[in-house]
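Holo model, 2-acetamido-2-deoxy-beta-D-glucopyranose. Inputs:
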Amino acid sequence: MSTFMFETNMLLLLLLLVGARGDTESNEPSYDMPNSVILKDGDTFEYIVVGAGAAGAAAAARLALAGAHVLLVEAGGNPNLISRIPGAAMALLGSTIDYHYDTISNNMSCLSSVGKACQASRGKCLGGSTSINYMMYVRGNRNDFDSLNISGWSWNDMKPYFLRYEGLQDLDLLPASSIPYHNTTGTMKVEFFAKFDNPWHSRVIEGYKTLNFPYDPDINAISQIGVSQVMGYTYQNQRMSTARGYLGRDDVKSKLKVAKYTRCTGVIIDDDNVTRGVTVVTGLLRKLRLYATREVVLSAGALVTPQLLMLSGIGPAEHLKEFDIPVRADLSVGDNMTDHTLALIFIKVEKNLLEGIFDNTGKIFSSLEDLILSGGSSLASIGLTDVTVFVNTLCYDFEKHQLTNSTSDCELPTTQFIHAYMERGLLKLGAPFLPQSVGWNSEVIKQLADISENYVILLTSSLVLQTKSQGTVRLASADPFKQPAIFPNYLADSQDIEEIVRGVRIIQDLSNTSIFKGQGASVIKLNLEGCPDSSDDSDEYWSCYARHMTFSTFHSVGTTAINRVVNTRLSVKGISGLRVADAGVMPKLPRGNTAASCIAIGERVADFILEDNANSDIS
Ligand SMILES: Cc1cc2nc3c(=O)[nH]c(=O)nc-3n(C[C@H](O)[C@H](O)[C@H](O)COP(=O)(O)OP(=O)(O)OC[C@H]3O[C@@H](n4cnc5c(N)ncnc54)[C@H](O)[C@@H]3O)c2cc1C
Ligand SMILES: *[C@@H]1O[C@H](CO)[C@@H](O)[C@H](O)[C@H]1NC(C)=O
Ligand SMILES: *[C@@H]1O[C@H](CO)[C@@H](O)[C@H](O)[C@H]1NC(C)=O
Ligand SMILES: *[C@@H]1O[C@H](CO)[C@@H](O)[C@H](O)[C@H]1NC(C)=O
Ligand SMILES: *[C@@H]1O[C@H](CO)[C@@H](O)[C@H](O)[C@H]1NC(C)=O
Ligand SMILES: *[C@@H]1O[C@H](CO)[C@@H](O)[C@H](O)[C@H]1NC(C)=O
Ligand SMILES: *[C@@H]1O[C@H](CO)[C@@H](O)[C@H](O)[C@H]1NC(C)=O
Ligand SMILES: *[C@@H]1O[C@H](CO)[C@@H](O)[C@H](O)[C@H]1NC(C)=O
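Output:
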């Protein structure tokens, strides 16, 4: 019910907006989504790609452009209109195009979430999670790839693939030293987010500068360190998902077959351990067998690809036996799941408040109206979220309140700060939707909603980049319609907590800079059940706080990692004709948001397949 209402509100907004600017529509390039094919039992293709997300859309499009006969199978339909609006990204959490999976609590994280269970959002439509994510374009650190020490997966192996798809619109706004790191003509357009017209945008940047954080003009070039304005996967004020960047292209639409609302339920593997195709359920529960004469690629994401493998007999043998699933390959599928885990830190601001969303009578106030009247650009802005910080917290001098650059490791960030601006009244207005969208329990929502009534709130996420805690994905049932058992196990390793507490201390220093203090800023200390009194500001309080106010960026990797489950060409070990290409193949988290790497993985698997099949004729 709440989801519906929230979307309806957003939709109303959008319709008003489109009405006001209808004249500009015709000048925009066509990004209509592909039509869906009608499938019959026994239909045969050269390749079947499962999942049209970050990696799957790229892989399927490249194979089709190379002339192969490819079917792309996707559980969802087209992304909705709200998905196109960068400023509405938050409204997609918990919406109808978010799987919003249940997770199992470890009783050590997300303690202020409903059921003490962490949220697991993922996109359910063409474009997958790139249709609901925050669009931040970050490749990570070259060291992330080099330190893997896996042949074929160094930075120099990855860089050509990052460049292949990048369509940077704003090269002229970057320093000349950035040029070798970018491509301006690739299919995934990226650009700076539309300007956020609010003094806090520059105040936050200035605040970090006071703490000696350098301003980094381009985190995807020489250095990641400092405060920066991140670019986004947007183009002409709208989201650039992989659905738009790959599947909406006319040359792709004319070649690639796409089956929407079609859910893969398993892989068909013959007695010789050769992949023959997939089983799917489409439309009104029609069960079909579809065949691939060459290969099947699983790109259902790090949470569902393991489930599909296990349902097909590929996984930990003992676990599969519990469900009477015959073992095809005994592999540690679903282990070693790691995710960028964060604590949400709230700064309240007393002074120079704008009018806020509510006036005193509780009516929706002028800023919402302004939002509509100002046309596209304010909705194309992602607010404060384009201000991002990468820092090695071990290089921060907590005595001097200054970032140092004393060792070469200082170039390797350990924490990312992500920001959001919440207009006065927003959390009050949004309170009814918060359990569904962010999953907080009523005690926390009440505290924040009350503060929100009188203050602007600056939200800072202190995010651990090299997470030590590991979770698992397992089968909960042999029924493919049941979701897998997802055990994120955030903050199980105390090193992750220590990293977050260092992040909190830096944010406290930020709120104590003169530019913040001048606005009456202070970090909010929530009253949390079972936590020490907040008044002595102890590390124990903030550790406990982090265990309560845990959140995720939904960057899980590692569940089908290279060398453990797939080889370096992404083929599943012991099974022929089956590859995995999605976030799960990354053995380790990159120091940055994961979509950039996932798209590169999709590009790469297409190359591997085309090279490896160049001289074979299986059919
Ligand atoms: C809310 C949110 C915010 C994020 N913010 C950012 C960000 O700002 N920047 C960034 O770089 N990254 C961000 N990420 C992460 C990034 O989007 C993901 O890491 C990336 O999209 C994962 O790619 P993937 O190919 O592994 O899976 P996905 O993109 O999730 O795609 C999986 C696809 O498989 C489909 N599928 C699943 N099961 C089946 C089935 N049984 N049969 C058929 N199809 C199926 C799904 O519907 C989906 O389309 C965010 C993610 C979320 C959820
Ligand atoms: C968490 O606590 C609940 C309730 O006490 C318990 O049932 C569950 O097993 C615990 N989970 C873990 C992972 O310890
Ligand atoms: C990298 O891998 C090679 C071969 O597997 C091994 O010999 C070498 O010691 C590894 N290097 C590092 C730094 O781990
Ligand atoms: C840049 O993108 C174009 C278009 O996709 C591509 O042909 C070209 O190879 C890319 N350049 C690099 C350096 O990858
Ligand atoms: C298929 O894999 C299983 C499990 O690893 C193995 O026991 C069997 O011998 C393999 N079959 C063939 C024909 O290679
Ligand atoms: C992966 O998980 C297994 C089992 O949980 C664990 O023994 C192993 O150390 C993990 N591997 C890595 C690289 O963390
Ligand atoms: C830190 O110092 C190294 C040299 O030791 C230099 O290359 C790098 O640019 C410096 N980084 C910052 C953020 O100043
Ligand atoms: C805040 O900054 C002032 C100087 O501007 C300093 O005296 C004070 O100790 C700082 N407080 C904290 C908690 O760091």
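The first strand starts at residue 44 and ends at 50. The longest helix spans residues 2-20.
Archived with the compound record.
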